[in-house]
Amino acid sequence: MSNRMLNPEWPRNYMKAIMEATKKFDVVLIAQGNDIRDLLDENRIEYRICFPAVECKQEYLDRYMARGNQQAFVELIKSNFETWVEDLMDCPQQKLIMKPGQHLEDVMKENGLI
Q1: I need a labelling partner for 42 at 20 to 30 A (CA). Which of 11, 32, 82, 101 fits?
Q2: 29 Cβ partners below 8 Å, 6+ apart?
């Protein structure tokens, strides 16, 4: 999807930026993947995982198309959505699951984060 070279310091550089941000802000939003969650766990950093419910798949595909994401990205999400949601459901951390029609701000307000 991108021709950029991955920073050789990844994901430690990202973790450093997260740690710096937690000193300045009450809530820090980050992109997450297994590598990042592993580092958060290793560093005993409390976090929550926010993601759409599995029944929101088409809604999210429509959002990605409407905002102009590349077709390859949309296909990647389409092919993996259910698996990724199931994997996140298996994580032990608190989950903030977006229902149909909800956005991140909605679930953050519901959970007293903003």
Answers
A1: 82
A2: 104
